[in-house]
Write a structure and sequence with these properties.
This protein is α/β, with parallel strands linked by helices and 273 residues long. The chain has helices spanning 8-18, 23-31, 43-56, 60-64, 88-97, 115-123, 136-149, 185-188, 193-196, 201-204, 212-224, 240-250, and strands at residues 66-69, 72-75, 105-109, 128-133, 155-159, 173-178, 225-234, 253-259, 265-271. The chain folds into two domains: 2-56, no CATH class; 77-271, 3-Layer(aba) Sandwich (Rossmann fold), CATH 3.40.50.150. The chain has twelve helices and nine strands. The strands form two sheets. Strands 5-4-3-6-7-9-8 form a seven-stranded mixed β-sheet, with helices on both faces. It has a two-stranded antiparallel ribbon with strand order 1-2. The longest helix is centred in the first third of the chain and has 14 residues, at 43-56. The mean pLDDT is 95. It binds glutamine. The site of glutamine has 9 residues, from loops.
Length: 273
């Protein structure tokens, strides 16, 4: 299949997620290429998916309709951003502060596929959660994902613009988590074409300086957070200083950055007052 292009890492990914091969079976195949393995999808089907990925430049996650993230597998489609591995760290930061036995109220602003909301619902079981998105299609996918992956959770989904649907919860929110669109308009076309030609502009583009949505999220946070509350937000690789300034300017306290897996300042954290 590699003759058509692409990388062996992606082939492994396709065999694992699409073909249902375990890591052990995959290693066996590398060591003994003639060994027999059982695939969930026919080889023909996997080859068709691979060709579409290479020739039409469509992400494998959209072609398979699946994306593994943390310890679960989400359904995804082109109405939502493909959840990135680096965003998983936001859950770790939250769980360093709030333990499993704690209680409170979290909100996920711009939930997309629901990845962050589902991870919070599975980890903070006694909490009440609220997930917001302005895309009806994204919200219905997030709801489908949560009913499969965290069926007993107490999560409400809201269609609307950032803080708009949550006004009644203001002052009682203990955790805000958000991965808003943050790519500046002029940078969008410089991303890998497979990203900007397939993933929703709505979930990627943050306006001229990339910070349009970040500003909305931050300015609402200071009004919405409870006294022990905090916000954890993802941003672009070069926005740390500006996002931290926005947080401090809004009145948030103990503002700090966190790095992603590549050592890049990718997240901002701030506490309510
Ligand atoms: N991390 C994504 C990318 O670099 C962008 C996600 C976002 O805008 N929130 O493609």
């Amino acid at each position: 299949m590699l003759i058509k292009g692409g990388s062996s890492l992606e082939i492994d990914w396709l065999l694992e997620i699409g073909g249902g091969l375990s890591w052990t079976s995959l290693q066996k195949l590398y060591l003994y290429p003639n060994s027999l393995v059982q695939l969930d999808l026919s080889l023909e089907k996997l080859e068709t998916i691979w060709s579409r990925h290479i020739l039409d430049q469509i992400p494998l996650q959209y072609l398979l309709g699946k994306c593994p993230w943390r310890d679960f597998e989400l359904d995804v489609n082109s109405n939502v951003l493909i959840p990135r591995q680096e965003s998983e760290l936001m859950i770790e930061f939250a769980l360093e502060i709030f333990n499993e036995k704690s209680q409170g109220l979290w909100v996920d602003l711009g939930t997309g596929s629901g990845a962050l909301a589902i991870a919070l619902a599975r980890s903070l079981k006694a909490w009440e959660g609220h997930a917001v998105d302005c895309s009806k299609a994204a919200l219905s996918l997030a709801q489908k994902n949560i009913s499969k992956l965290a069926p007993d959770s107490k999560v409400t989904f809201h269609l609307g613009d950032w803080w708009d649907p949550l006004q009644s919860l203001f002052k009682s929110i203990d955790l805000v988590i958000s991965n808003p669109p943050y790519i500046p308009t002029s940078t969008l076309k410089k991303l890998d074409p497979i990203v900007y030609q397939n993933e929703p502009n709505l979930a990627l583009c943050g306006g001229d300086d990339g910070l349009d949505s970040c500003r909305k999220v931050i300015s609402g946070a200071i009004k919405a957070l409870s006294p022990k509350g905090l916000i954890i937000m993802e941003h672009h690789y070069d926005q740390s200083e500006r996002v931290l300034q926005l947080m401090e300017g809004s009145g948030l306290r103990n503002v700090r950055f966190e790095e992603d897996l590549n050592g890049i300042r990718r997240f901002a954290i701030g506490f309510g007052s």
